[in-house]
Amino acid sequence: MIGLKNNFANSNITYVNFLHQLCIKLNKMAQAGLHAIIGYQTKRIIPYEKRIIPAIIFGSMLPDIDIIVVGIGSLFNNLMVAEKLFHRTFTHSFFTLIFVYLFFAILSELKKNPTFKSVGKGIAIGMLIHYLTDSILWFNKIDLLWPLPINPIDIWNSWSPPKPIIHALLTIEFFCFRWYAWFLIKKHYEKPNKHSWIIMHLNIWKNLETWIFLLFIFLTIWEVSWFKLVFGFAYIPSLIMALFSTYASRDALECKTE
């Protein structure tokens, strides 16, 4: 019985350590809310095609799912191994971008539906925007040519930002998520459609992101040691909700370039 209790205690410690390490990795790449905002602004310069704007927004957030893949992979292997295999590798590679575009282009030909090609083009443009934003604004390396044996790109390798700057940027993420929820609600009211049932859930999400944003302002000011752990627990559901809401709001986001 004592042995079983010790094993259970050790498993709990291992699980907590796993969550802590996973959240630390997450803090090195989280920008999905900002990517969504930047993705939408491309409507000013991208010629109109059906579904291309919602696809760009979706694609601009999509590469950040690598943290979820790292979490799943770590259940079957060491966290460090999972990070090396999946973190900012295949989801941030030009080759994946090309594959996505070709996949939808072929699907478009098979289905005789040009909209699929527009979706593929939009996701590819969104992913490219994500790569550029990560390279410039996130002070970390990115494996743009994975799986080739070439060193990752890191234009900030000679400078590491202080912790308060990192925490401030991470806190702004939740404001961006909050803005994105409000923006989707606004689009649904402007263009009601069969998917507008999601407005109620978007309102709940918006309010939650407001409180999370205020919480993280407090945590940033007080420089708490467990900032990254709390951030990880808040960020992953926010990312999943942002991706799902984009897909569910595809009709509301469908609009010609103004």
From TrEMBL:
<dbReference type="Pfam" id="PF04307">
    <property type="entry name" value="YdjM"/>
</dbReference>
<feature type="transmembrane region" description="Helical">
    <location>
        <begin position="119"/>
        <end position="139"/>
    </location>
</feature>
<feature type="transmembrane region" description="Helical">
    <location>
        <begin position="52"/>
        <end position="77"/>
    </location>
</feature>
<feature type="transmembrane region" description="Helical">
    <location>
        <begin position="165"/>
        <end position="185"/>
    </location>
</feature>
<feature type="transmembrane region" description="Helical">
    <location>
        <begin position="225"/>
        <end position="244"/>
    </location>
</feature>
<feature type="transmembrane region" description="Helical">
    <location>
        <begin position="89"/>
        <end position="107"/>
    </location>
</feature>
<feature type="transmembrane region" description="Helical">
    <location>
        <begin position="197"/>
        <end position="219"/>
    </location>
</feature>
<keyword id="KW-0812">Transmembrane</keyword>
<protein>
    <submittedName>
        <fullName>Uncharacterized protein</fullName>
    </submittedName>
</protein>
<keyword id="KW-0472">Membrane</keyword>
<dbReference type="InterPro" id="IPR007404">
    <property type="entry name" value="YdjM-like"/>
</dbReference>
<keyword id="KW-1133">Transmembrane helix</keyword>
